[in-house]
Amino acid sequence: MSTQLPEESETETEAERTETPGDRRRAAKRSRQQSSGAQESAETDEETIHIKVFRYDPEIEGKMEPRFDDFHVPFTKGMTVLDALMYARDRFDTTLTFRHSCRQAICGSDALFINGRQRLGCKTQISEMDEPVRVEPLPHAEVVKDLVVDMEHFYDQMHSVEPYFQTDEKPSDDLEEQRQSRENREKIKMSTRCIWCGACMSSCNIAAEDNHYLGPAALNKAYRFAMDEREGEQSREHRFESLDQEHGVWRCQTQFSCTNVCPKDIPLTEHIQELKREAVKNNLKFW
User: What is the pTM of this model?
Assistant: First the structure.
């Protein structure tokens, strides 16, 4: 027995001598990959989230018929619906299409219909959703592909209210700013939070049936400037001429659906009602 041990030791020493640095690096890399794969498999076995994602591609035969695809995504603490979609796209199906940008509820590009309600994907926690998490494009909009909808009509409505200052007079000094009182700033503060996500427009049944209706987002944008004390009086009157119309503020039926889904908690319905009151006061004449 004692005579065999030195021979085994000598054989191992010889193998070590013949191993090149490249061999050692490749062996270490294989070891890391196996370890990473085992860890990922273990995490997947621990807990996964089931998401059902709407799929539609009008340009590829066989995918023109709308359907839902199922994905089982490994769950991690703090995971959002957007995180889950990105994992599914990167790991399972690279053709999965959706919009996203800042991932901080600021850009508004990832507004989706999640479990039957308009939400921002980056703001919606997976842990708070019932499974399977059903992800669809925004209702009442033309679907371009998968979760992407055509936003052109929404942007047209937003721009139609002239979302910019129209002051009658400017300070005489170019370096002098147009001042605003703190009280007035507080009054319009919430309206300035709009991120143009389109969630409110998608939730509005009136907007769904009437393409001429300005919609809650555009009316809120009009409120932001009409109620700003720095707006010129003539400009304000001109603005209310476009708002005090059948398809303007009077088309709103006060359903509060827009307020309920707004990801920035803007009291949209309240702002529209105040615009109605201002429109009535502008039309009052005393002789």
Answer: 0.79
